[in-house]
Amino acid sequence: xxxxxxxxxxxxxxxxxxxxxxxxxxxxxxxxxxxxxxxxxxxxxxxxxxxxxxxxxxxxxxxxxxxxxxxxxxxxxxxxxxxxxxxxxxxxxxxxxxxxxxxxxxxxxxxxxxxxxxxxxxxxxxxxxxxxxxxxxxxxxxxxxxxxxxxxxxxxxxxxxxxxxxxxxxxxxxxxxxxxxxxxxxxxxxxxxxxxxxxxxxxxxxxxxxxxxxxxxxxxxxxxxxxxxxxxxxxxxxxxxxxxxxxxxxxxxxxxxxxxxxxxxxxxxxxxxxxxxxxxxxxxxxxxxxxxxxxxxxxxxxxxxxxxxxxxxxxxxxxxxxxxxxxxxxxxxxxxxxxxxxxxxxxxxxxxxxxxxxxxxxxxxxxxxxxxxxxxxxxxxxxxxxxxxxxxxxxxxxxxxxxxxxxxxxxxxxxxxxxxxxxxxxxxxxxxxxxxxxxxxxxxxxxxxxxxxxxxxxxxxxxxxxxxxxxxxxxxxxxxxxxxxxxxxxxxxxxxxxxxxxxxxx
Length: 506
Known about the structure:
It contains 18 helices and two strands. By secondary structure, the chain is an all-alpha fold. It has one domain.
């Protein structure tokens, strides 16, 4: 997602007195609220039998409570030192937490060492390529169905729905609120789609609801059928789980704490990611204000920063492994256990923040397009469920249930939703599902680039309405590409063979 925030500070130093409200306290209070909601929701889940049996993630419960509180404060206009509490600046901070936590979590997973047997068997590369095909195939079918729906609604007399607005369905469902907001604002500013920004944000909100509600319903269904095993809340360690300290690793507490080392590696990776993207941003500025690089490429780099961060994490991991092989590094500095714990922490923060950042009032921003939004949400949820269920069952036969929930959550909400659903049945990431999503997303960058370019082309003749050649050319390209992607998928997976009857045995 792409979140842009500008903070202007004058020459006077920041004051850290609570009554002197500023961006520093906004960030601190937002973090305190998110973490407090996490504790509260954990108590509620363990205390209320219905919640305990529902498989509803703790972070989902905390986010829902936070969103309700936010709505109450919004409409009651309760304020804290002239700032409306939990709104305005707070929403911006929550969006920022979501944006950066996603990248940090994926870096942590990207730095993890992969089981040598899996690498040797080429299973990782195979699953990653299949995952990339699934992600792009889902984007394409969402885009095709979305544009068909908005083309139909644009035919109604007095309709304000732009025919190309349906391309926001994969932006909101497949890529999250940040990218939906970004592309929606482009459609509004350059494509003449009045209310495009709110349209995109509303679709992303419905996508999140599809991930949370549909995913939890499916988890309960799968648990009832015996396809998955419920997470035991009181379980601390699983058999065979990697220990924090083993031979060859740095001690838990030395001149530098082992956890500090993991955090530092993540920070270094994110700093390199930011430096590269920021450098490209500045380079594009030298080419002028209205060039392809600055208009299309740079927003995509910021919007998919978590994918590029994952790539740099893998590069750093390779460098560390190479230096260790050459005996330049004597000890094992990367620790999977601690990296998983860091990823779990930031994903919990991210999920609660992303739910609280939703502005529910966007649903009622424009009543003339509400029906088309409902149609996009319902049809998008159904078509995504069917497509992801079909493809993941055939792509990941050793972990079909884990593969389905993480990709369904990712392709309706965000990667955080997929991770949240996965953690309910695979809390310690014992299956390769999380790794597959991480590496598959990097594969999807190359495969999906043509799709992203269409977002800057589909509206070029918007003043012609349904006579726009760019609209129909875009639809034709997506249909053709969808067929190609799925022919490749079927050829490498035997896609029409009978699906597995059960999930991964534990």
